[in-house]
Amino acid sequence: MKILVALKQVPDTETKIKVAADGRSLDPIDVKWITNPYDENAMEEALRIKEAQGAEVVAVSVGGERTREMLRNALALGADSAVLIRALETGDPLSVARHLAAYAQGKGFDLLLLGHMGFGGDNGAVGPMLAELLGLAQATVVTRLELGEGCFRAEREAEGGTEVIEGSLPAVITTQRGLNEPRYPTLKGIIGAKKKPLEELEGTATEAAISISAIALPPARPEGRKLEGNAAAQAAALLQLLREEAKVI
Amino acid sequence: MQFELSEENKMIQKLARQVAETYIAPSVQERDEEERFDRALFDKVASYGFQGIHYQDQYGGSGGDYLSYIIATEEIARVDVSLCIAIGGGGLGGFPIHSYGTEEQKQKYLRPLVEGTALGGFALTEPGAGSDASAQQTTAVLEGDQWVINGSKCFISNYADIYLVIAVTDRSKGLKGLSCFIVEKDTPGFTMGKKEHKMGLRSAVTTEIILQDVRVPKANLLGKEGEAFKYCMQTLDVGRIGCAAQALGIAQAALEHSIKYAKERCQFGKPIAANQGVSFMLADMATKVEAARLLTYQAAWLKQNGRPYGKQAAMAKKFTTDIAMEVTTDAVQIFGGYGYSREYPVEKLMRDAKVHQIFEGTNQIQRIVIAGNLLK
Ligand SMILES: Cc1cc2nc3c(=O)[nH]c(=O)nc-3n(C[C@H](O)[C@H](O)[C@H](O)COP(=O)(O)OP(=O)(O)OC[C@H]3O[C@@H](n4cnc5c(N)ncnc54)[C@H](O)[C@@H]3O)c2cc1C
User: Fold this and answer.
1) Same-domain check for residues A194 and A232
2) Catalytic residue among B115, B126, B225, B360
């Protein structure tokens, strides 16, 4: 069994987002980068499969220099090797999927695991695009995964119930929280990671299918208003405002 | 000069913080209140390998550097220093076995300490032998191929599985008449006496130990007969860096809590941090913590690079534990009445800080060590 896990770095949810001067990207100052939380589920699933039945796990990311730190962490967690495909992070899912497909093509991966979407971007597109580019079966937003002889059975939450998807391997599976509880690395893992290979490849510049034209922060919340007077006066004023200003009643 | 942590140091720092916040933090207050050591929690934390970071693979360690161990200790202490006593027990027990033990002793006793499957204890202090560790009353006599140990120890950390016990083997030789023995807790005649009820460090165990005709095989003598005092002094030298790291973690926590609280708590219509009287306190606290960190990391760096570190370790221990006391006291001050309440975290930090000025050699003893280094 050979498993590819695709990982992306995303801004920590606690980061205060600032728009860069170009108006189309994030200001990297003060941004703390973390592994996309959904990708952590993908990584964990790969490690569990490795522990249960043996597998070679390759962690792959498309990005720049800072991505190395995340890949080191993947090696510390238990990936056997890591690959950094150097490319500009343009926010174009198709270009990421093409890079991943070009890398995975012909390498004999039985399973390709990805988080179901990148935190923040929330496109949910790379996984399905990768499956299409490679012509593989896929199941997305998976909360339970079982592997059989050359086949898989996946569960995903559907409106009011659970959807079961069965297919043959190789396949692309995108993971959802709840699939598993991601682990922390151990000390041995961290120190052993230094000896594992972290390969770097030059990405082939593909033409972007989409580009981001502008990023804007949500408008600041208007300041609250304090109603004066006794309870009856406040209630009357509130009622009037709800009718005339907010127009909700 | 290099002031950057290695990538490995940083990863270990991050892991220690995550593990401390995920597993240790939720029960800190409760364990302190109940004076309860939680072995299962120790097992969980130990499963990541913190106690064995700097030991080689052949003894079950991770083969990391000593600074990583110190950084991890600081991070765990930032959340709950009591647990560091159990984690560090592997160090206090482990260091001498690693340094002076035979290969057989290392495989049998060091490995479980490093792997965290056993807890270590270091039994030096006696009712009459505190700062003057040489005034030992416990004796060990060779009978056939067994050593028979008699005596009692006090203030010994951890309900350990493997103890190093210091005893007199030849009183006529004074300091050169002390020897060190490896004793398993289940050995007949070995019992734990009274458990101390302490001001701080309440979820770490501190007990009396009574040794009554405790027989251990000849093979359990550590190193050479008559050399234990030297081993103890070297063990305490290392232990002092760990002690400093613990105090550093406590001081760091006090600083973080204080900054947060001073920004949130409003009096006279503004956050208390807006008063220079308070913000200057924060500035002083932060400066002390930073200086203590540099001294502590420097001592660790000297050790891991094979340089003499005794003086720096004593300086780091003395300085860091003193500033931890100051910083935690200031933290309680910044929290006002709430700081004095057990519902808020800073009074515990103040209680936990105090003992660091006392054990691993009191801070008066540290001054003796430092002065001795200056005047030799
Ligand atoms: C929570 C806790 C855990 C401990 N864990 C362990 C353990 O695991 N193993 C172990 O062996 N011990 C342990 N100890 C014991 C600890 O190391 C001793 O308490 C410490 O060495 C001081 O000894 P003492 O308490 O007898 O104080 P004393 O030696 O009686 O000192 C009393 C005071 O006199 C001062 N003083 C003494 N001599 C001098 C001098 N020459 N010049 C100036 N001042 C002096 C001291 O600094 C101190 O202020 C622990 C103690 C505590 C509180």
Assistant:
1) no
2) B360
Confidence grade of residue A210 (pLDDT, cut at 50, 70, 90)? confident
Asked whether B355 lines ligand 1 (CB < 6 A), one says: yes
Tens of pLDDT, residues B22-63? 999 999 999 999 999 999 999 999 999 999 999 999 999 999
Range of the domain at B13: 7-115
Is there a single domain that holds both residue B235 and residue B371?
yes
pTM of the model: 0.90
| Domain boundaries, position A237 | 219-249
For chain B, the domain total comes to 3
Residue pointed to by tokens 């962690």: A59
Start-to-end C-alpha separation, chain A: 61
Using the beta-carbon criterion (under 8 Å), do A190 and B12 form an inter-chain contact?
yes
> Cα A68 to the chain's mean position, in Å?
16
CATH number, domain at B212? 2.40.110.10
Q: Which two tokens stand for residue A77?
A: 């967690």
Q: Could you say which of B15, B52, B62 has the minimum Cβ distance to residue A184?
A: B15
Work out the number of other CB atoms within 10 angstroms of the CB of residue A138. Answer: 21
Q: Per the domain annotation, does A123 fall within a domain?
A: yes
Q: What is the ipTM of this complex?
A: 0.83
User: Going edge to edge, which strands form the sheet with A137-148?
Assistant: A161-168, A151-158, A137-148, A171-175, A111-115, A2-6, A56-63, A81-86, A198-202
Measuring CA to CA, which residue among A126, A114, A123 is closest to residue A37?
A114
